[in-house]
Design brief:
It is elongated and about 60 Å long. The protein has helices at residues 3-10, 15-40, 44-70, 82-108, 118-139, 142-147, 153-186, 192-224. The relative contact order is 0.15. Helix content is 81%, strand content 0%. The protein has 225 residues and is an all-alpha fold. It starts with a helix and ends with a helix.
Amino acid sequence: MPTSFLAGIFGRSPVQPLKDHMAKAAEAGHVLLDFIEAALAGDWERAANVRSRLQDIEHEADRLKADLRIRLPSTLMMPVDRGDLLDLITTQDRIANRAKDIAGLMYGRRMVLPDSLAPGYRRLAQRSVDAVDQAERSVGELDELFTAGFRGAEVKLVERMITELDAIEDDTDTLASELRAQVFAMEQSLPPVDVIFLYKAIEWLGDLGDFSHRVGGLLQRLIAR
């Protein structure tokens, strides 16, 4: 039977596009780390170049998201809910968007962090990207989940990966809380507007961990159904 006929009945698998899109989100996270290093060093020329690369990655993620949505017609026959897959790619996309937002905020204000905050900000950035990487590894198991019919040992493996993702996200919450406490202790010595945007930069970095955690939650929903 011609492959095109089968494709017409079952539609093209959304798994590889989902994985490609998550890989792009993870790439955005790693490029953000480069940007933050440039910003903390006060090297705004390098920061501008890295930010431009980050914008390109985010645009590519948008293109992949649009392509995937086109590939998910309501008649597509799959063992998972179409709405769950749309939620998954929307959440993945927020990672790339937020990475771009953070770079835009820091570059736009030429944000200079107090020296005492820089180590904690680096740790939060790295742990947040660790969460993104773990989410990418979990999404990477989707094709095996599909093949196994969302049953058996593959489900156990993904559940363990999601548990580890939960632990990483807890770390990001702790690091963000510690940073906010540091900023609070310094508020009187800093310009009020700077304080507002420092809190915003910390919150948005933490969002990378939160969005990654939601990716894990959506994978759990796929498994549960």
